Amino acid sequence: MEKIVYSKEQARELYEKMATIRYFEACIKHDSLAGEIPGFVHLYIGEEAIATGVCAALRQDDMIESTHRGHGHCIAKGADVNRMMAEIYGKETGLCQGRGGSMHIADFSIGMLGANGVVGGGYNLAAGAALANKAVLKNDKVSVVFFGDGASNRGTFHEAMNVASAWKLPVIFVNEMNCWASTTPYRATCNVENISDRAKGYHIPGVIVDGQDVFAVYEAAKAAVERARSGEGPTLIEAKTYRIEGHFVGDPELYRKKEETLKIFQDTDPLRIFRQKKILPDAECNEIEARCEEAIRKAKEYALSCSYPDAESFMKYVYVD
Amino acid sequence: MSIKTYKEATWEAMKEEMLRDPSVYAMAEDIIGNGGSMGHYIGLGQAVGDENRVLDAPISETAIVASAVGAALAGMRPVIDMRFSNCLPVCMDELTNQAAKSRYMFGGQGKVHMVVRCPDGIMKMQGAHHTDCLEAWFAHVPGLQVVIPSSPAEGKGLLKSAIRNDNPVIFFEHKTLFKMEGEVPEEEYTIPIGKARVARDGKDVSIIVYGVMVSRALEAAKVLEQEGVSAEVIDLRTVSPWDKETVLASVRKTGRVVVAHEAVRQCGFGAELSATIGEEAFASLKTPVVRIGAPFVPIPMSPHLEDMCRTLPKDIISAVKRVLS
Ligand SMILES: Cc1ncc(C[n+]2csc(CCOP(=O)(O)OP(=O)(O)O)c2C)c(N)n1
Q: Which residues contact A314 (CB under 8 A, 6 or more apart)?
């Protein structure tokens, strides 16, 4: 593959997206621990490079299916953090008017077709969107479905890979191999070392990429997107990463040692790895981070200032009027 | 008697039944890591001296359920845990075709003795994919039994019976129940499946409930008592089979009925109760049955909207006032 030379502007955008996710999640973690967000929240800290790298290879009209750990996907696809924050707080101005919350956040205007409270719920939706775009609407949009290592054990994964391959659908399966499915280590319930190996069974390319390196992820995604757009069909990308936070905020984490996790984070933090490449000077990275921190502070202020949905609107959207 | 949480009481039920019968085993996702979604299996393998009978499963609900059906047909008594009710719809074939029908279709050749534990209900802002109460779906399926305990002692006795029972049982446990404390007998006991209990005697109105609604109904009954209303509370315990005799006896006594559940009101189990009461005790009714439940909406995440989906003591009180007027 040709070596890509990144402009400063491209690099800045990538770093800014990752930092936005990082500060967003730090804020959510804080507020959730403080009891201000009592629902279930699952954080993306440490995995920022995956959503960022993949979505950088997409157009705004491409579509993504996300997971219960979906804030990062949503930000990377271009959602407004104010309206995301308002959604997580259950406010009327939230992306889903407070009806969805963290685990069911979506922004159709930018092709973010939804987080999912049901693990493995998104694969076939992505395949369906790809089928519509390719076979019926006859455009060149692609679909991406993000999924965890644990989620690869759902039967829906295998069904979606089969139809995507059989029908040569423009779908990219992006596995976030963070080594844990909730409290269970990946290999405890699966005998296949790499999820990308599954691709062989469906006769599609399976690629492993360093999920902590945003450039590597971007390049793998770009190749898969080109393949999908040109009608050659799906790709399975396995991005190796690690779940730094508990499964959800408040997870007692009885199953692993905090020090080990912190050590892994120090060695693999995608923001640090980006800085080590020296594409941008540290001072500029610091500036970007300060900007993101401020944007998130404002997003929270915005969310707090908004009102809850009005009781009268309660039944709205159960059906199309 | 001693005070125990629901979590402790049902943990004991699991332990006692596993010690009593080597064919009982437990399987769920994350049953080892944090001891299950509510920590309700912590240390179980060790306690029964056999870690191989507490099995971690992949995120493969269809495999969890169907393997339990197969294991049951081969002679085992699996107890599987779906961690929350909205995992049930992803394995409907396994539950409603395989578990429910295998015995009947094959002319009584096999037994599907398995228990599907299933935390359900609204806790706090978990949203529409984690909060449904689906008992009516399963009460509609011949071959399945549906058990819904209301307290630590009830949970223990009913879980033990569900495990010993030779039929597939869906065992719904409201998520808020796990921390509930209550008196639990020290001695060995079981509670029969299909037998309701009069949780409180009364003469003016019958409140028919199950699961988490029992404590809410008792709370409502206390308030009503201060207002001079004597409410009887019937805890159904199991909705399939359900104890028609106890319900009808209460209805004949009071002549007024409130049926309440947290599940969506439309086509909820209350509809079955209400229809049966209308068919079989119409002459005893002084006023029409009042049936309450959640509005016909997926549970929204936003706190105020979510609150509108709960069926609380205040709702029971106003329902009682409606049947009394
Ligand atoms: C069908 C289904 N089964 C189980 C769950 C409970 N659950 C939520 S997240 C999760 C672990 C998911 O692990 P993985 O797919 O690896 O994603 P990660 O959380 O690591 O990002 C589980 C078991 C669920 N939400 N849906």
A: B295, B297, B300, B305, B308
